[in-house]
Amino acid sequence: MTFDRLRARADRVNQTCRLGDLLQDYGYAVVHDAYREQQFACELHGADNKPSARFYPETNSTYCWVCQKTRDP
Known about the structure:
Elements: H1 3-16, H2 19-25, E1 38-40, E2 53-56, E3 61-64, E4 69-71
Antiparallel strand pairs: 1-2, 2-3, 3-4
């Protein structure tokens, strides 16, 4: 598969999957708000009891301040 086709596929996934809804479906306590970021506990770096990650609806992405990683669908 060519890079252009992979990029087009990734763009389609990012446009059609609402990451905030997916996070809620998987049990993350993210309050859906279309106008500002929402914090939640990131379990990807180990046990986390504090809301160290944020969901940004305008970019459909998350950022964890502990992992220092950006994620999208």
